[in-house]
């Protein structure tokens, strides 16, 4: 018996990186996992990696109609929703003097607006005692150059997670944030034109001397999703190799 036997989970941005690793882990723990993402080709590949205990729905969390279609698919299964990992987010490097309206609106549109409505629209489907997990970032604390808008979005969702933990406590729904440090994902590699140098710089800043693996973040997600964390809500669980701790 896995930690999530018979449960239903949703992972947004579940086709690559941390989202895919989390979906694989939640399925391995016994959950039926819905995943969503914008690119069907990547979703199809993710389904093969996850196995038969998964359903993919193509869509963009910034598009409320896509969210409605996603939740209609989950509703059709008839078992509600026990775990929501609101993982989908985007990042790009942009120093203050280069920030444009488009950059701001795009990053906030996905990371804050999209996350907010992902959770809000899930409320009618969430079973009492469900677990909501938001994907955070150590950039909230670090003040890393050129990450200003992205870090601000993650600070916003961290604040929302605390509020929602308070608002949903009457239904026994726990809301937490998992906060990864630098993690080796396609999204991280795509941030700069010189990914090898970027990875080396990031690894050198981590006390454990390396980048995180998506599977290590996924293990923390599985913990927060399960009854093993039954007395944990409103927290931010850092999985950062000590980056923001030491």
Describe the fold and architecture.
- Strand 4 (81-86), helix 4 and strand 5 form a beta-alpha-beta unit.
- The protein has helices spanning 17-28, 40-50, 64-77, 101-122, 139-142, 148-167, 186-189, 195-205, 214-225, and strands at 8-12, 32-37, 54-58, 81-86, 126-135, 174-180, 236-239.
- It contains nine helices and seven strands.
- The protein has one domain (8-238): NAD(P)-binding Rossmann-like Domain (Rossmann fold, 3-Layer(aba) Sandwich).
- Helix content is 45%, strand content 17%.
- It is globular, with a radius of gyration of 17 Å.
- It is of the alpha/beta class and 246 residues long.
- The chain has a seven-stranded parallel sheet, with helices on both faces.
Brief account:
With 246 residues, this protein is an alpha/beta fold.
List keywords for this structure.
alpha/beta, 7 strands, seven-stranded parallel sheet, 45% helix, Rossmann fold, 246 residues
Radius of gyration: 17 Å
Q: What is the structural class?
A: alpha/beta
Mean pLDDT: 97
The number of domains: 1
Strand content: 15-25%
Give the SSE layout.
Blueprint: E1 8-12, H1 17-28, E2 32-37, H2 40-50, E3 54-58, H3 64-77, E4 81-86, H4 101-122, E5 126-135, H5 139-142, H6 148-167, E6 174-180, H7 186-189, H8 195-205, H9 214-225, E7 236-239
Parallel strand pairs: 1-2, 1-4, 2-3, 4-5, 5-6, 6-7
Helix pairs in contact: 1-9, 3-4, 4-6
């Amino acid at each position: 018996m896995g930690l999530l036997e018979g449960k239903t989970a949703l992972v947004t941005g579940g086709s690559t990186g941390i989202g895919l690793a989390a979906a694989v882990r939640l399925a391995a723990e016994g959950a039926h996992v819905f995943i969503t993402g914008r690119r069907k080709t990547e979703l199809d590949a993710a389904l093969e990696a996850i196995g038969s205990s998964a359903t993919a729905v193509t869509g963009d969390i910034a598009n409320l109609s896509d969210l409605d279609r996603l939740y209609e698919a989950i509703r059709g299964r008839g078992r509600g929703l026990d775990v929501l990992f609101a993982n989908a987010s985007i990042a790009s490097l942009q120093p203050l003097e280069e920030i444009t309206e488009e950059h701001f609106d795009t990053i906030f549109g996905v990371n804050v607006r999209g996350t907010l409505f992902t959770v809000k629209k899930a409320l009618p489907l969430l079973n009492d005692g469900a677990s909501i997990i938001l994907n955070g970032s150590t950039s909230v604390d670090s003040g890393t150059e050129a990450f200003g808008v992205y870090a601000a979005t993650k600070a916003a969702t961290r604040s929302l997670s605390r509020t929602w933990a308070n608002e949903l406590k009457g239904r026994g729904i726990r809301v937490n944030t998992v906060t990864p440090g630098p993690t080796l994902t396609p999204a991280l590699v795509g941030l700069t034109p010189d990914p090898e140098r970027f990875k080396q710089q990031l690894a050198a800043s981590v006390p454990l001397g390396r980048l995180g693996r998506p599977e290590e973040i996924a293990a923390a997600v599985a913990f927060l999703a399960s009854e093993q964390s039954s007395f944990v809500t409103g927290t931010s669980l850092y999985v950062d190799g000590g980056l923001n701790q030491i």
